[in-house]
Design goal:
14 helices, single chain, Aspartate Aminotransferase, domain 1, alpha/beta, four-stranded antiparallel sheet, 43% helix, Aspartate Aminotransferase, domain 2
């Protein structure tokens, strides 16, 4: 078939550009040490920032949730799939965010991707203008494209550029959209200045806090708590498959915004509700996040971050300025980053090699992600290996 031939040629081109991705098969629970394709590896590529994905209390809560609520929900939230477990979880999130969003209410989604798509397509439209951060996650980019809104992209972290775009806008609905913590750079959006602009121009500020929820702020309540923000202009998206260790996502905003999503978000209305057992397990995860154990895990994670930054200082590869669990090491070319990742794997270390289009051309990187489940010795094993490779792996000519 001509179509199959065409697809194969394109796959061959990706292979030549060293951009083919492949899945690895994991035979153990998410943890620092994993059995990957039959080999034991020490992983630094998970988003399980607090080490809760295999926490015994969360695992038992998931099993208990299945015993109480069954394996599936059976239908969408608006038919008969809206369980009391979902209600309890949404009320918990609304309470968490009430200090930052007046009249806060929350709505759960099956995935973070669906939450961002459903939020932007419901709020956007021909009368809206979206102002999207240059390094936003693909789910925000796709949601903006499908929203039928005019979309303006502003440079990464450039408040002056954003201010200029907002001042020029004559749209009836203005929505600024940003990651809270940027997934490939690890830095945090300048939200206080962004919120001031949004309040001045009557815009909503949508914050996808996938990589801050559970980790940043008082009791792990995220980037809004980290900055001490409060405003009805805020719309907050939290992801539950990363620091929370389970699955799903939620949107928290003013009650009116949430009711609009419940009535108009196609990604919420036209999909089967996630299993109530997941919501049941997440209640235990939230107990751990906001309790003493969660605080101890965040303290340990911060110590690991400081250790890795200090021990990788001085290598030829550029460590980006990040104080979060995401510690990117810029290597440069696709070929070199794959060679470094392969050399690490030979030593039993698994670090993600991130290449375009996920990151800009020429900025291929090792995306080191740290977890509170890692020990200082394990982090030291990684940094020692990288420092040794700094001199052992030939540097490509520019």
């Amino acid at each position: 078939m001509e179509l199959l031939d065409r697809l194969q040629r394109q796959l061959d081109q990706l292979d030549e550009a060293q951009l083919l991705r492949r899945r690895r098969v994991v035979a153990t629970p998410c943890a620092p040490e994993m059995l990957v394709d039959g080999r034991r590896l020490l992983a630094f590529c998970s988003n399980d920032y607090l080490g809760l994905a295999n926490h015994p209390e969360v695992v038992e809560a998931l099993a208990e949730g299945a015993r109480v609520h069954g394996a599936g929900s059976g239908a969408s939230h608006l038919i008969n799939g809206h369980s009391r477990a979902h209600v309890a979880l949404e009320e918990r999130f609304a309470d968490w965010l009430s200090a930052h969003i007046p009249c806060a209410r929350a709505l759960t989604f099956s995935t973070g991707y669906m939450a961002n798509m459903g939020l932007l397509t419901a709020l956007g439209g021909p009368e809206a203008e979206l102002f999207s951060e240059e390094l936003n996650h693909a789910s925000l980019i796709d949601g903006a494209r499908l929203s039928r809104s005019a979309v303006r992209v502003y440079p990464h972290g450039d408040i002056d550029a954003l201010a200029g775009l907002l001042a020029q806008s004559r749209a009836a609905v203005k929505i600024v959209v940003t990651d809270g913590v940027f997934s490939m750079d690890g830095d945090i959006a300048p939200l206080p200045a962004m919120l001031q602009l949004c309040e001045r121009h009557g815009a909503l500020l949508v914050v996808d806090d996938a990589h801050g929820f559970g980790v940043l702020g008082a009791r792990g309540r995220g980037v809004l708590s980290h900055f001490g923000l409060r405003s009805p202009h805020l719309v907050y998206v939290g992801t539950l498959g990363k620091a929370a260790g389970v699955a799903g996502a939620f949107v928290a905003a003013h009650d009116t915004v949430i009711e609009w999503l419940a009535q108009r978000s196609r990604q919420y209305i036209f999909t089967t509700a996630s299993p109530p057992a997941l919501a049941h397990a997440l209640m235990k995860s939230l107990d751990l996040i906001e309790g003493e154990e969660g605080e101890q895990r965040r303290l340990h994670l911060r110590a690991l971050i400081a250790q890795v930054k200090q021990e990788l200082c001085g290598t030829r590869w550029r460590l980006l300025d990040s104080d979060t669990a995401i510690q990117p090491v810029i290597v440069g070319s696709n070929g070199e980053v794959q060679r470094v990742a392969a050399a690490l794997q030979e030593q039993g270390l698994w670090v993600g090699a991130i290449r375009p289009p996920t990151v800009p051309p020429g900025s291929a990187r090792l995306r080191i992600t740290l977890s509170a489940a890692h020990t200082a010795q394990q982090a030291g094993r990684l940094t020692s290996a990288l420092r040794a490779l700094d001199s052992a792996v030939p540097q490509e000519a520019p």
